[in-house]
């Protein structure tokens, strides 16, 4: 059982060997995929949890923490507010909102990550992974306009097509 997110009432979800018990409302209203999963089985029984695949307990905790904060948000500067989740937490939310087809949460995570991700290589990789073209464009623009060429290590992180496109674009600048 998760130490914080095994609540008195709710749906029992199993992530690897960890049980979470949280209200079903946000999952059902945010994701048709999860709503369908939750409608197929009795979901308040530890012996018959809904098993979530391809998710780690830490990632799922980040998602649940955003959907169901345990502390009220006192002010915009409150470190528990969504604006103060760290990048790794937002990346978990981005990945799971994609996996569970949660479009509104996907947009929220993209919004917060847009101002947090400053590395152009990471922007390109994430933009390609999550089909978010503004990040790809921002990453390419930053790499084209910087003084230093692409390093060998950076080149290995990108696809061959991206490296070729970047080299051609830098030649034009």
From TrEMBL:
Annotated BTB domain residues: 9-68
InterPro entries: BTB/POZ_dom, SKP1/BTB/POZ_sf
CDD domains attached to this UniProt entry: BTB_POZ_ZBTB_KLHL-like (cd18186)
PROSITE patterns recorded: BTB
Pfam families: BTB (PF00651)
Protein name, UniProt field: Unplaced genomic scaffold SPHSTscaffold_258, whole genome shotgun sequence
Species this protein is from: Sphaerobolus stellatus (strain SS14)
Lineage: Eukaryota, Fungi, Dikarya, Basidiomycota, Agaricomycotina
